Amino acid sequence: MPTQKSFATGSACPDLEAGKLRVYSMRFCPYAQRTLLVLAQKNIPHEVVNINLKNKPEWFLQKNPLGRVPTLEKDDKIVYESAICCDYLDQVYPDNKLTPDDPYCQARDKMTVEVFSQFVSDLHKVMNSTPQENPESLQKVKNHLSQLESVITARQGGYFGGNAVQMLDLMLWPWYEYLIFAKVVPLERLSGVYPALCVWTEKMPEWPSVQKCRLDSRQFLELVNSIKSSITDYDVGLDQDS
């Protein structure tokens, strides 16, 4: 059943082999991207089933009543919500642990992710308008970047995890990838205002896990344009089933 195309209303649920881990995803969903990055970083074998989030299959809503991705399934166990999925994977597959051992450091990182959620909201507003139409949200995006610049500078080592990519890096990265693709804040301008974030943005794509999950910027922008046109094409770029 290898396919990247999304399953929609009326489709049949693909059979899941016993003992195999499946992640229900959407190719361009940053929340799902978090979990895919963790799976890649920890080298966890899995398969991906993409979901049409506008016309969700009935069987998917039975598995996850919230109807959101990512959702994990293995045998009779189902886990959903991106932060929960990522923490679950890090506990169930303890090799290459991604979260700090110290409880305070864990809490600190989770608080950073919570604050970051507002950045995500403002970023969506900016991406769906022009800077002239929504200057307040653009300024809020820049303010969030300044706050995160302070966080990563304090960590030292070039990553939010310090000297290596850790869970917090993977939780934040998908939105920075989108921010660069959409040219909300051009990368060439990051170096002068957010030097530590700029270094991080340049270093993250070098990691094998990020390379495995790398998005196609052209296809991403085509999806954004299709959303703006009210014709959301989750299968953009998949002219042939693959």
UniProtKB/TrEMBL annotation:
Alphabetically, which GO biological process terms does the record hold?
glutathione metabolic process
Is Chaperone among this UniProt entry's keywords?
no
This entry's Enzyme Commission designation comes to 1.20.4.2, 1.8.5.1, 2.5.1.18
- The reply on keyword Isomerase is no
Keywords, sorted A to Z: Oxidoreductase, Transferase
Gene3D superfamilies assigned:
1.20.1050.10, Glutaredoxin (3.40.30.10)
Q: Which residues form the GST C-terminal domain?
A: 102-223
Q: Which InterPro entries match?
A: Glutathione-S-Trfase_C-like, Glutathione-S-Trfase_C_sf, Glutathione_S-Trfase, Glutathione_S-Trfase_N, GST_omega, GST_Omega/HSP26, Thioredoxin-like_sf
What is this enzyme's catalytic activity, as reactions?
methylarsonate + 2 glutathione + H(+) = methylarsonous acid + glutathione disulfide + H2O; RX + glutathione = an S-substituted glutathione + a halide anion + H(+); L-dehydroascorbate + 2 glutathione = glutathione disulfide + L-ascorbate
A single Gene Ontology MF term assigned here is: glutathione dehydrogenase (ascorbate) activity
Please list the residue ranges annotated as the GST N-terminal domain. Answer: 19-97
Role summary: Exhibits glutathione-dependent thiol transferase activity. Has high dehydroascorbate reductase activity and may contribute to the recycling of ascorbic acid. Participates in the biotransformation of inorganic arsenic and reduces monomethylarsonic acid (MMA).
Q: Tell me its family.
A: Belongs to the GST superfamily. Omega family.
- Which protein is depicted? Glutathione S-transferase omega
